[in-house]
């Protein structure tokens, strides 16, 4: 079955004139200023400027990423070598649209972001998961089949298997259940909690802005449809016309970044630069009977400390003049003798999607390591610098 758009008319791409776009953005900004419950619904088109192709753009699309994946399949052809496509989605840098949405959420203007995307960019951009509903999963998230514990990874967990098994097990000793990727394939049910969250907000929304979605996949597309049915304002930003074209209060034909940059200017809100956010937990447990101290180092979700986040490819531990000892499985656990008086250096080696340099933790000796230490590491990819802080809002400029 073809997943591309079969109607030739719906494949056409339209662009508003500058005067039309200005008038529409002026009106949209006013609606948002007056809004009490703004929601945003995003599709693949919000990520094309990061180098991630969409699914349904036509063969003659103006997008640098080229035709959509299903359009290429339906036409039995492959992507042109001229297409501007990133070779690894883990390296994609959140777009101005992603960062604008983060800032609107931080200011309390955006109540919920509902996304069909599984590229992980909304979480990576800094969107608070409490205000995010990922309807089709997240390539960086796997879930325990048995206890439903969630694990974030700084690598792709999607194996493409029908049973979704990643081959890893739950870290909890009392569980050890099978971990499964969270990607939703065609024909599979959407996650009930995410879907319920999305529809709950659709029932409250007075303004719904759609960005980069063809609105052809249900039940996801039923969410903005619900807003229109309630006779609230539905604004669709997309190059192609969608099935909800005639139901929308306004249709904007422009790139998602163009819409969001113009909107933020009218709201007089700056779009923040993207900063890579990491949270690290270090725990230290002493066994006086064995004269040993066990040190554990692990990543945690920056927005929810209860969720483990695999951040490091490896760590290297250097104690005094001793040779480096390398550990490759997170959480990293190693022992140090209580009698050891030498300094301890722990080098954290990241996966390097953004050419992150290693970060070193230094302790005068084992007694200098706190029983529990939790801190943030913020990385500016343009400067190539890490910033360590205990304040989650202390983002470097």
Automatic annotation (TrEMBL):
<dbReference type="InterPro" id="IPR029035">
    <property type="entry name" value="DHS-like_NAD/FAD-binding_dom"/>
</dbReference>
<feature type="active site" description="Proton acceptor">
    <location>
        <position position="136"/>
    </location>
</feature>
<dbReference type="GO" id="GO:0070403">
    <property type="term" value="F:NAD+ binding"/>
</dbReference>
<dbReference type="InterPro" id="IPR003000">
    <property type="entry name" value="Sirtuin"/>
</dbReference>
<keyword id="KW-0520">NAD</keyword>
<keyword id="KW-0479">Metal-binding</keyword>
<keyword id="KW-0808">Transferase</keyword>
<dbReference type="InterPro" id="IPR050134">
    <property type="entry name" value="NAD-dep_sirtuin_deacylases"/>
</dbReference>
<dbReference type="GO" id="GO:0005634">
    <property type="term" value="C:nucleus"/>
</dbReference>
<dbReference type="GO" id="GO:0046872">
    <property type="term" value="F:metal ion binding"/>
</dbReference>
<feature type="binding site">
    <location>
        <position position="147"/>
    </location>
    <ligand>
        <name>Zn(2+)</name>
    </ligand>
</feature>
<feature type="binding site">
    <location>
        <position position="170"/>
    </location>
    <ligand>
        <name>Zn(2+)</name>
    </ligand>
</feature>
<dbReference type="InterPro" id="IPR026590">
    <property type="entry name" value="Ssirtuin_cat_dom"/>
</dbReference>
<dbReference type="Pfam" id="PF02146">
    <property type="entry name" value="SIR2"/>
</dbReference>
<feature type="domain" description="Deacetylase sirtuin-type">
    <location>
        <begin position="18"/>
        <end position="270"/>
    </location>
</feature>
<protein>
    <recommendedName>
        <fullName>Deacetylase sirtuin-type domain-containing protein</fullName>
    </recommendedName>
</protein>
<feature type="binding site">
    <location>
        <position position="144"/>
    </location>
    <ligand>
        <name>Zn(2+)</name>
    </ligand>
</feature>
<dbReference type="GO" id="GO:0017136">
    <property type="term" value="F:histone deacetylase activity, NAD-dependent"/>
</dbReference>
<feature type="binding site">
    <location>
        <position position="175"/>
    </location>
    <ligand>
        <name>Zn(2+)</name>
    </ligand>
</feature>
<keyword id="KW-0862">Zinc</keyword>
């Amino acid at each position: 079955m073809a997943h591309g758009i079969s109607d030739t008319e719906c494949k056409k791409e339209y662009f508003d004139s500058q005067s039309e776009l200005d008038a529409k953005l002026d009106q949209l900004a006013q609606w948002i200023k007056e809004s009490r419950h703004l929601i945003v619904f995003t599709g693949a088109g919000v990520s094309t400027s990061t180098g991630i192709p969409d699914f349904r753009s036509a063969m003659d699309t103006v997008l640098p990423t080229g035709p959509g994946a299903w359009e290429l399949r339906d036409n039995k052809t492959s992507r042109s070598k001229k297409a501007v496509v990133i070779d690894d989605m883990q390296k994609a840098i959140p777009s101005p649209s992603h960062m604008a949405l983060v800032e609107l959420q931080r200011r309390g203007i955006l109540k919920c972001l509902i996304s069909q995307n599984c590229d992980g960019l909304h979480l990576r951009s800094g969107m608070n998961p409490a205000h995010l509903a990922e309807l089709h999963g997240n390539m960086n998230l796997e879930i325990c089949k048995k206890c439903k514990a969630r694990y974030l990874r700084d690598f792709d967990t999607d194996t493409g298997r029908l049973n979704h098994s990643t081959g890893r097990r739950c870290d909890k000793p009392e569980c050890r259940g099978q971990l499964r990727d969270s990607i939703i394939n065609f024909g599979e049910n959407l996650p009930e909690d995410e879907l319920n969250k999305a529809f709950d907000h659709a029932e409250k929304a007075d303004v719904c802005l759609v960005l980069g979605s063809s609105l052809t996949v249900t039940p996801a597309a039923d969410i903005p449809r619900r807003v229109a049915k309630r006779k609230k304002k539905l604004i669709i930003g997309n190059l192609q016309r969608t099935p909800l074209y005639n139901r929308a209060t306004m249709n904007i034909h422009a790139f998602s970044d163009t819409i969001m940059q113009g909107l933020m200017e009218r709201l007089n809100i700056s779009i923040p630069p993207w900063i890579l956010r990491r949270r690290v937990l270090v725990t230290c447990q002493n066994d006086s009977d064995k004269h040993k101290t066990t040190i554990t180092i692990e990543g945690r979700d920056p927005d929810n400390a209860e969720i483990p986040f695999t951040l490091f490819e490896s760590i290297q531990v250097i104690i005094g003049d001793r040779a480096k000892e390398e550990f490759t499985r997170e959480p990293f656990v190693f022992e140090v003798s209580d009698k050891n008086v030498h300094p301890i250096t722990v080098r954290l080696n990241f996966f390097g999607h953004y050419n992150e340099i290693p970060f070193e933790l230094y302790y005068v000796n084992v007694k200098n390591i706190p029983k529990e230490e939790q801190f943030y590491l913020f990385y500016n990819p343009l400067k190539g610098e890490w910033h360590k802080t205990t304040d989650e809002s202390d983002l470097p400029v």
